[in-house]
């Protein structure tokens, strides 16, 4: 499910919570989907009953990654993420961080990859202070969008 606005995402998340589901949240740009993304999403989903993926808007990706990014627009990235079997909902955000949407959704579990530590995970304090948990999952080495882009650039030279 692609939640086209935060109200839809909040309503659905609250319905799931009301049914006793554990809500897991993770986020990212997900510009060029690769094995590392699929693995992280599967690990995140294994931590609970429903996985919500916060997806950076095109404007947000440009601020974080530079003017040449994203390679794929938001709608394309959202459809791709939504088609992954471990994902239950995709919700976009325009800010550079998912802090505001995390405060609105209040997931039970926040998941980030092993390139983060607890002290630099945006939203960790919100989730923990609301009785939730933060999980850091292992990443597959050398699987990243940046490395894919670099490989493509090298092939063109």
Can you offer a commentary on this structure?
This protein has seven helices and six strands; from the N terminus they run βαβαβααβαβαβα. With 157 residues, it is of the alpha/beta class. The chain has a six-stranded parallel sheet, sandwiched between helices. Helix 6 links the parallel strand 5 and strand 6. The radius of gyration is 15 Å and the shape is globular. The model has no long low-confidence stretch (mean pLDDT 92).
Short description:
With 157 residues, this protein is of the alpha/beta class. Helices cover 42% and strands 19% of the residues.
Question: What attributes characterize this protein structure?
Answer:
alpha/beta, 6 strands, 19% strand, 6-stranded parallel sheet, 157 residues
Q: Low-confidence segments, ≥5 residues, pLDDT <50?
A: none
* Sequence of strands across the biggest β-sheet: 1-4-3-2-5-6
- Please tally the helical runs, counting DSSP H or I stretches of 4 or more residues: 7
Helix amount? 40-55%
- The count of DSSP E runs of length 2 or more, i.e. the number of strands, is 6
Structural class: alpha/beta
Order of helices and strands: EHEHEHHEHEHEH
Mean pLDDT: 92
Which radius of gyration do the C-alpha atoms yield?
Answer: 15 Å
State the end-to-end CA separation.
Answer: 40 Å
- The coarse overall form would be globular
β-strand amount: 15-25%
Biggest beta-sheet profile: 6 strands, parallel
């Amino acid at each position: 499910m692609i939640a086209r606005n935060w109200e839809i995402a909040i309503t659905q998340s609250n319905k799931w919570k009301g049914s006793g589901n554990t809500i897991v949240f993770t986020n990212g740009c997900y510009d060029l989907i690769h094995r590392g993304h699929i693995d992280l999403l599967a690990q995140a989903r294994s931590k609970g009953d429903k996985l919500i993926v916060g997806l950076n808007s095109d404007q947000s990706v440009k601020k974080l990654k530079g003017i040449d990014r994203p390679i794929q627009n938001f709608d394309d990235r959202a459809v791709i993420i939504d088609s992954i079997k471990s994902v239950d909902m995709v919700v976009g955000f325009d800010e550079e961080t998912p802090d505001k949407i995390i405060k609105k959704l209040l997931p039970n579990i926040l998941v980030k990859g092993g390139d983060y530590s607890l002290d630099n995970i945006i939203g960790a304090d919100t989730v923990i202070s609301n009785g939730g948990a933060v999980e850091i999952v292992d990443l597959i080495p050398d699987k990243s969008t940046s490395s894919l882009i670099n490989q493509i650039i090298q092939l063109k030279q």
